Amino acid sequence: MSASVVSVNVGRVVDTPGSLLGRTSIDRRAVPGRIRATELGLVGDEVADTRHHGGRDQAVYAYEREDLDRWAAELDRELHDGNFGENLTTRGIDLAAAVIGERWRIGDAEFEVSSPRTPCGTFKNHLGNLRGWVKRFTADGRPGAYLRVLVEGEVGAGDEIVVLHRPEHGVTIAEVFRAITTEKQHLPGLLEVPELPAKVHRWARQASAS
What we know:
The protein is an alpha+beta fold. It is built from five helices and 13 strands. The strands form three sheets. An eight-stranded mixed sheet has the order 4-1-8-7-11-10-9-13. The radius of gyration is 16 Å and the shape is globular.
């Protein structure tokens, strides 16, 4: 089965009284038709916390429908496409095994795998303030992938995900995720991965100096 996009999802900023920021756009919903992907994200998608989310390195977030289905069974609840805040709900591609710097064509746009998603309090609150959710999601080790948009274009549900290039260093989303969460002794090695965001390289340099 070829890899494909199940749905394209966008979010609107809504007030969330009692939360640290007071607003969020994490609850993304599938939209019909074709949506333009730009270097700063999907047209129509809003980002509430621009300090920690969005920008060129986190323009688009992809998460697997297979993992949503697995979590739905474990949590005993329905999880719609976009429920984990993803812009692209995918099928047939192992995002944890995607190599940093890997390039994809989807529709007439091109993307580059940049980094893993790290869970936060907003994510936990969005799921009903699940006790221990951040640790549970981290231990699972399948965080989904942030993407840069290298070539702007339109994407839509049903589009095939075509891998155009895979860097020889071979460092995957899962390996980077572990290095920045539970296996920080491996952070210095991330300096050898040029396609990672500058903030990850900064953490790696700090770890090297300590």
